[in-house]
Sequence to fold (331 residues):
Amino acid sequence: MAVELKVLFVGDAEPDVKLIARELRRVGFAPTWQRVETPETLRAALLREHWDLVISDTSLAGLDVMHALETTRFAAPDTPFIVVSGRLVESAGRQAIQAGASDSISKDDLGLLGPAVVRALQRTPEVGSIAQLLLATQELERRRIARALHDELGQQLMALRLMLESPHDSAAAIALVDQALAQTRDFAIELWPTVLDDLGLGAALRWLASRHTRGSLAFDVAVEGVPRMAFAVETACFRIAQEAITNIERHARASRVEIALRRTGDELELEIRDDGTGFDADAAWSRARGASIGLFAMRERAALAGGRLDILSQPGRGTTVRLRFPPRSLR
Fold:
């Protein structure tokens, strides 16, 4: 099921519009659109109906991107505005971002359009439920895995075929098969961790920590008598923990991570705490943006499963991600 998206294109090149629409379809959207190319038709379209997104070219004669942005901000101030620019006019895109545009993408790198659209829509809840945004994010992830299968596993299998077609070193061929098998297992685990099905959330959290233990980052996982729970709750806990650990590795410069899963009264509580650099949590929530799921979507993932997510952090004092589920959500 694709995510429906009403797009107003500002530009005079229909082939460009079709190329952008095709890219949107590739990453999980079902766009319907109208193209305008004058200030009058842009203003009329914005006032006549609601649009989920405005995408503007930078090379339109008679309607420059700054004028288009200003018109959109006046007529539909909550509508995301993304600039798609040619190589020679990328400076116009940067200028538009400074003036309030959601993002700027080069026509030569439309692969970045999908993540840019998801980020923009995350800041406009009226577009639809977060479930729809998660669907679009899923499509981006599937595309990434498909490319990895083609570029990594596919090349390994092709090399193995060449070995089998000519005199070869059997030890080298066996080593290549082992690499391909390991790569296949990693891809399968990325799609779904079977340990969560087989052994439950506590074991899955220990397994997750073991996969991320490297260098100076140490993990302490404590699970206190938690039985099996509803599928949605276990999945939400695991995916939020996964995202939190990824954020720690990328941004926190932490040396230690503590994961605690426990029952507090009748509630279930999952806590991920690090000793890293921390950040201004209030400012991060106000932005609620991210390249993948992001903080906003983590909170909404928890809400969809019946829980509540809180993130506590201050610069220099580490970060705590706390997820709670009331009794009615656990059954």
